């Protein structure tokens, strides 16, 4: 079973997320989409989403979140246009860590679907990519001490 590490804080003040959705209408949520990757995947899906003006894109890569060269190139262009990217794996297990790619946020142990929800919520409340990265590091990361 995959669950975020913060499940350890269930029922405590630390359990609540920082997103107050009582102040947000559905149509005001940021737009975030998922693009799945495979060997030699084209750049068309990412290019189309960037051109359509989405706020964020989650890539579901193979292995440790790898995407094709074509998708990586258009992802770089997308980050320059202000689109926030989160890298996840489509394998069903394993964590994705920050590899230093500028403008790309690690999805840690979140599935692509869960990463999309977190990205959408984070971008609804800020357009600062570093604040979004911080949300993934605190909410999406699996680091916890099971002995506590």
Spatial gap, N to C terminus? 20 Å
Helix amount, in percent? 25-40%
Q: Which CATH architecture is right?
A: 3-Layer(aba) Sandwich
Helical element count? 4
Tally the structural domains: 1
Q: What is the oligomeric state here?
A: single chain
**Proportion of residues in extended strands:** 5-15%
Main pleated sheet:
4 strands, parallel
Structural class: alpha/beta
Q: Just give the CATH class.
A: Alpha Beta
Average of the residue pLDDT scores? 85
Q: Strands across the major sheet, in which order?
A: 1-2-3-4
The fold-level CATH name is Rossmann fold
Query: What would you call the shape?
Result: globular
Q: How many beta-strand segments?
A: 4
Q: What is the CA-atom radius of gyration, in angstroms?
A: 15 Å
Give the H and E element order: EHEHEEHH
Poorly predicted residue ranges = none
